[in-house]
């Protein structure tokens, strides 16, 4: 599977996440740009906002959707192929604006006067579902599909990001905009362009750029704060209604010497490429998914009749491009708000499993970490869930695999995998979680005889072992500017609810500490109460949720649980993973696969949902549908005896299609704006494990267990 790394850190914003992107792109041989200077007035450099690759023209084969507005101001969804052929759906929408998600499998609808809702309805072949995400104000999709930028309402123009997976809203820019339309996200997922009052031309509008990382998980410390938009200098054109193409080209509606026109800025300043006839509602242009074409509505002088046009690039530019009439509105109606639907492959579905729990852990390791990429791993017992639960976040946060072995002897398959990961005998390290009663000294001796340095993370019991693991994380992060303000609790006596805790804890760089049912053991209480840096305690699952309430001295005590293990996994996903580009599924009836899979998902800062062996619980299905617009990859952990092929097929269908820019197998080609070598991509999901695979991924974690070794031995 191919993975795409982000190409640069724009505008010199060097957050922890930014450092991860830079490190990853350097490793992949991508062109890492220097900090861009402040945007000069009226200038736009597409490369500042684009990626080294572009979807091929095949992504543009979908229909163009418009809202056909009748004389009574009612709107209906209408779609057309480029040759004007109408496309019909099993379900009709009466909304005022329709915006396709970046995978073409979800459409957002602007329904005036309604609150955001989420429904699913049947669609004609080839998709199983058409998903409607309704918003009370106009909205535009993040290129990742995990969130939408929309206007907060009113006249301030304040922009809000809404995460589809959770419904959470976050203000992303201050209210200096001119109108109530949504901002247009940039293809790198790190900014957006809105319409604002011109600071230099009285009474005119300009375009403004603001930064936003579209973070995909619930650690608020990682979010970009709201910031004021920076005017781009198009005030003399009364610029409004921007759109940004996959290659970074900027398009907008402006008023020039010859009236209202469609303008593009390809890096040489704004150029009018077509008259729009009149200044009418709903004329925001839309780029095709590949960025090679533009669709726009052209109106008669009183806006009562319209035409849908497509402009194709000629010789790599929209200037003097090919203009084609697609269709005209029916008598007595007009078109508004065009949106181009992407055509992309189905979401990739992978099973990481083997004939037993040990083989499944090895399969996850092989997919997540290339040969020779590590000098360490975490080893836990295949027979003891408690130690594996606390070992998962250690592995996830240090970006190394979690492997399982039998308690009495090191499984030969595990030894083979460890040597694959660490072929250099001089640079091998394994951290064993649990005492000799859980993993025998014979295992330790076997490792040492093969050149592995070994350290145990262990305490007098499972609760003390969880504290020991927490201390490893404490020491490992000393001196690094990362938030360590949280601790997670999970029931150490019953595995199901604890299965969901690991990936969430990894998002917060936090440990998973074990409770004894609803009681907090003295060792755990002493650790949490003795660290003033811990401000928030999260109880995952019913018993741990009850136990979390005992920490009355902490500022935040949060309970995340459901009626059963499956609903708990959903609640964890909604709380900590608002978007799911990669979504993992594991059995809620067998702990080992969920734990090794959870370590991999934690390393990628992505959600893990629990399923039954032959059934997808209804609430899990609903959450999968919420993730649909963003999901490019589905990982199923465990063999067919644990998670059936029927379940694998179902969760794959729920994921829909891959996003046009980020889908791992979406056909792509070199972006001409970048050097040929910049599009090199590393196979496997290991780029995501390394951090920074996409904008908003988890901040850089220590990539070698030297950090873990220092923590354990220091």
UniProtKB/TrEMBL annotation:
<dbReference type="Pfam" id="PF04122">
    <property type="entry name" value="CW_binding_2"/>
</dbReference>
<feature type="compositionally biased region" description="Basic and acidic residues">
    <location>
        <begin position="704"/>
        <end position="714"/>
    </location>
</feature>
<keyword id="KW-0732">Signal</keyword>
<feature type="region of interest" description="Disordered">
    <location>
        <begin position="662"/>
        <end position="714"/>
    </location>
</feature>
<feature type="signal peptide">
    <location>
        <begin position="1"/>
        <end position="40"/>
    </location>
</feature>
<dbReference type="InterPro" id="IPR051922">
    <property type="entry name" value="Bact_Sporulation_Assoc"/>
</dbReference>
<feature type="compositionally biased region" description="Polar residues">
    <location>
        <begin position="667"/>
        <end position="679"/>
    </location>
</feature>
<protein>
    <submittedName>
        <fullName>Putative cell wall binding repeat 2</fullName>
    </submittedName>
</protein>
<dbReference type="InterPro" id="IPR007253">
    <property type="entry name" value="Cell_wall-bd_2"/>
</dbReference>
